Task: structure prediction
Amino acid sequence: MTHTDSLHPDFDRYIDGLLEGDALAAFEQVFEADAELRQAVKDARSFDALVAQTFAPPSASDAVIDQILSNAINQDNQTTNSTVSVLDRPSSWVWIKTIAAMLLLSISAFLIWNATQQANSNNRYGPRSYQSMSDLYASAQSGTLDYWRCDSDREFITTFWQHLDQGLKLKSPLPSTIEAKGIGYSNTLTEHSMVFYAIVNREPVVLVIDRLQKDSSFEDHLAIDSTLQVHRLEMGGLVVYEVSPFDKPMLFGVIEAVDMPTEWIPGRRQSGLEEDGQ
Result:
């Protein structure tokens, strides 16, 4: 199951325009209440538009191409004072058109590959290469860590619940020494790890969070020569690693495991209304 499937089982059918009637209405009801689902739809449509634009063929007609090639050949003939016989010209045109077509195909293939790479890099749900805890912290230091800021407690809690089956919440208000930056996905403990990023006393602090049963020795995910400190905490069904230069954990006290409110579970609200109406 992909992450978009976990957001809604009809996600792909909605993007493809295949939902109708009651199924479409049910999806739209969840869509209005779920910020992460709305963002996923926006990302998917942006990617489809980018691919469609890349695949668009050149608008030049055969006559225009023939004219360009003819001018090129005439210019070459004038420069070299060479002659091309009438019998040889058809063969020359075949080769020139073949080379031109190969060049166009090569350029198109590169443009498609480049667009796909760019779309994947901007897609928070796309596949990710492995990053050690040291790599994640280095990204935070350099300002290249991939994360986004949640608009509400609901989005924060729901994102963790949908991805790791456990809601997490930031305590409020945060101490003045802590600036919450955002959350993101990573491939660290497993390919489903999540990240919480904050600035504490002007230093980056990164939490790596995953399911407890997927836990392994953190030394496997930390560079041997690293001077970073790593602290471990079990919280609900999750394991949380804090990576920072501090000799004691700085964020464990501001994050807590919470139950997912029933009315926030996608599709549950509609079912409850139907049961009440029976």
About this structure: The beta strands are 167-170, 178-186, 193-200, 203-211, 229-235, 238-244, 255-258. Residues 82-91, 119-123, 269-278 have pLDDT under 50 and may be disordered.
